Fold this protein.
Amino acid sequence: MMSEQTPKFKVTIDNISIEVAAGTTILNAAREIGGDLVPPTMCYYSKLEGSGGKCRTCLVEVSKGSEKDPRPMPKLVASCRTTVMDGMEVKSITSEKVLDARKGVTEFLLLNHPLDCPVCDQAGECDLQNLSYKHGAECTRYEFNRRTFEKEDIGPYIQLHMTRCILCYRCVFTANQLTGNREHGVLDRGDKTEISTYIGKALHNEFIGNVIDVCPVGALTDKTFRFKNRVWFTKPVDAHRDCPTCSGKVRLWMRGDDVFRVTARKDKYGEVEEWICNDCRFHKKETKDWVIEGPSKVDRHSVISQGHYVNAITPQTKLINEVIGRNPKLLLDIHKVSDVNRPEIDLSKIEGPAHSDDFKK
Ligand code: SF4
Ligand code: FES
C-alpha cells in the first residue's frame, strides 16, 4: 500500500535512467542499476541506521539537480547521503572530477593506514585494498610519521588494530544497534580519534562478533583465525545449523576438511546478509557442527576466487622495471611499520608459507 503512495522519481546515472521511490539515495539508485557505475563505499552500510557520510569515497557529480531546478550542484556530493530528485542527472564514472576526487579520498584514507597488507588478516578481502587498486596512486606524498596507538585488549575474540582503523563508525553503529550495549565508541578528535571500549570494558555481547564482518579494513579481526591462513587459500562454503540464538546461516572458510573461520554471509556489496551470533562464529569450528549447502558464490574478480576458476590471463613477459620505466623503490620496511611481525624473522627467507609461529602472539 505504502509503495503505491510513494511517488517515483526518474534519475539518470551515467546516461542510464531508472525510476526509484522518492527518498532513495543516489547510491541506492545506482545499486539498483548495478555494474561499474555504483560508487564505492567505505562507511555506508545499508543494514546500519545512520551509517554513511563519513568517508567521502561515494562522491558523485550532480550535473542536473532536478526537472524543476536543472542547475547542477556546485560541489560533488556524497551519494550515500543525497536523495534523488525527479529528473536528476548524475555522473559517476563518466566524470573526471569524480574519478579525481576518489583518487584524492583514497590517498587521504591511506595517510595513516599502515601498509602491512602482507601480514594483515584482512588482505584479500579488504575494501581499502580494493579501493587502492582501483583508485589509488602508485606512491604516497605523505612524509610524516603515521599515527600509532597504545595496544588495547577488547576481549577474548576480537583483535583491535587501531592503526588500521579508518573511522568509518560501522562497528560503533553495529554495537549500538545490534547489541543494545553502548560499551564501545569513538573517542577524541582529529588525528587522535580512536575506537575504544569505554573504561577498558570488554565487549561481551553475544552478537558483538559482527563488528569483525562490518569493518572494511583489518582493524577488527577474529582472534580465533588470526594468522592461521590467508583468505585466498581457504574455500568459502555456505552452511547452516539449528542455532537457538541466530539464523545459523553462515559462511565457512575451509581448507580440506578443516573449518578455519566462520563468518556471516555477505552480499555483492560486501554487506552481511544476516547477523550471526558469537557461538556460531567462534565456537563451531568442526564440519560436523554444520549442514554444508555448497560452495559460496565468489566474485570472479576477487582474489578469493583464484582457486575456483581457470586462470585465462596471458602470462606477463616483461619485467616490472620495463613496465613502470624504472627500478621499483622499496617503499617500506614491513618490520618497522607493522606491530605484528617478529623482527628477527625475515618472512621472505623462511621455508614454505608463513605460520602463526612467525608472528607475535
Ligand atoms: S574499527 Fe573498523 S569498523 Fe570500526 S570504525 Fe575503524 S574501520 Fe570502521
Ligand atoms: S560511503 Fe558515502 S560517505 Fe562513506
